[in-house]
Amino acid sequence: SGGFRIAPSILSADFARLGEEVENVIAAGADIVHFDVMDNHYVPNLTIGPLVCEAIRPRTRAPIDVHLMVRPVDALVPMFAKAGADIISFHPEASEHVDRTLALIRDHGCKAGLALNPATPLQHLDHVMGRLDLILVMSVNPGFGGQGFIPEALAKIAQVRRRIDCHAAESGRDIWLEVDGGIKAGNIRAVAEAGGDTFVAGSAIFGARGADGSYREILADLRN
Ligand code: DX5
Ligand code: ZN
After folding, report:
1. Distance between Cα 138 and ligand 2 center (Å)
2. CB atoms closer than 10 angstroms to residue 98
3. Quick check: CB of 179 below 6 Å from ligand 1?
4. pTM for the full predicted model
5. For substrate, which residues are the binding ones (predicted)?
6. Which of 72, 124, 151, 183 gives the lowest tally of CB atoms within 10 Å of its CB?
């Protein structure tokens, strides 16, 4: 409702039953599948790649939102586009040529996003707003699920919201403001009030499977 989107991070799903987990969480009312890619280089953890994206693609019609925490970035873009990604985001520090990487993502038919770590300044958004479909504000340092929400992120979300609204007024284009890390029922309202419209949640969702085996209750809680 109200243009809000919930994007479960499958990083906290049961990887032994990943297809079912994706189906269940979308059936329970989630909007987007958030797909965390870590390379043990840009971040100190190693997760999943295009093969897994390709494997879950037929399980849902929901958009797959690929969050690349990798360096270098560019070689993975065509691979994820081919594997069925709808959105591809990356961290500007991880790309030699941010504008080129954004163009590459769009040339492959995907929506493009920039991900900003807690200490990454908003200047990285300068000059590329016209190429962005999404801005991902990190409310934890990337690398692991289950970390605590960094409260300083709220002021940053509000700043990014102002930039997006200015851009929309000039161009008529909306850019999604996705927030990632430590979101749960107890803080999602504050994130929405600061200006977030797309909410990633991993441990809060996959750690809360109901007695009926579904994620309906936690999805309803987050949406409310
Ligand atoms: C962190 C990832 C997040 C994370 C979210 O590096 O980008 O998507 O898995 O998980 P929670 O909601 O548990 O913080
Ligand atoms: Zn993520």
Report:
1. 8
2. 20
3. no
4. 0.98
5. 9, 67, 143-146, 180-182, 202-203
6. 151
pLDDT at 78: 98
**The predicted structure's pLDDT at residue 211:** 87
Provide the edge-to-edge strand list for the sheet that holds 64-69: 5-8, 198-201, 176-180, 134-138, 111-116, 87-90, 64-69, 33-38
Q: Which residues surround ligand 2, an ion (CB under 5 A)?
A: 36, 67, 180
The stretches in the chain having pLDDT less than 70 are: 1-2
Bridge-based pairing state of the strands 198-201 and 5-8: parallel
Please name every residue paired with 135 in a beta bridge, in sequence order, or none if there are none: 114, 177
> Is 4 among the annotated ligand-binding positions?
no
Ligand 1, atom 1: closest residue by C-alpha: 142
ipTM: 0.98
- 34 in a known ligand binding site: yes
**Residue 36 annotated as catalytic:** yes
What Rg do the C-alpha atoms of the chain give, in angstroms?
Answer: 16
Q: Which pLDDT belongs to residue 1?
A: 38
Q: Which CATH superfamily is domain 5-223 in?
A: Aldolase class I (3.20.20.70)
Residue 181 beta carbon below 6 angstroms from any ligand 1 atom: yes
Active site residue 99: no
**pLDDT for 134-171, tens place per residue?**
999 999 999 999 999 999 999 999 999 999 999 999 99
